[in-house]
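Objective 1b. Sequence-to-structure analysis of HTH luxR-type domain-containing protein.
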Amino acid sequence: MSSQQMQKVLSWLLEISQIQDQAHLIRFCQNLHDDLPIRSMAIAFGKINQRQEVSEIDQLINISYAQQWFNCYQENGLAKSDPVLNTLPKSPQAKVWSDIYAQVSTPEQKTFVTAARDFGLEQGMSFGHFAPREGQASFLSIATTPKLTPDIAAILMSLAPHLNLAALRSREPNDPVQAGALSSRESDILQWMKFGKTNWEIAMILGISERTVKFHVSNVIKKLSANNRAHAIALSMRQVRSGHGVASA
């Protein structure tokens, strides 16, 4: 990203952190839609089962998709054959549609890809946030046009984790993320993570091995139901802002 793009991303992240209701969320997404080469955008909320599968989509915020696509999606039961949706819970990293489409193998998946392309949904990215302890998930889907450039992909990947959290926050503003109790050592390490310290730097500060730090970081991520290190930091900062500290044992 250019320095100008990075400055813009920082301003977007600041606004995302202030989103508390769906009206603000929708307004932000509409502005983002106008500022970036985005063709369609939507956020969905769902439930995941013990097998880490999406069992139900129970709410949809449609920013700019054609309603006919969602009608087609629902009427033809495309959720069952959606290769992007069914891949996200197993590996919650950002999914580039063209990469997923190129790997489909079953007739049902091929039918889905054909239908998506008929609606112009060939290039884009999807992002998921999963909270297995709560059985909840949010999905951000963005169709781009005409081509997903590295700069645009980097911008979307920077914004998406925070935007998914804002979506969940706007849906249930009084229900903070529930974290498993952190040990005192895990809490210490989380604090240094929030200061941007690397595992090696934390090891030097606390006088422990880098391998031990990695072990505790992994536990922090797991207990916060986070997707990765940055996501764990974002979740813990959200809890502090809402007045709910991360519990430590």
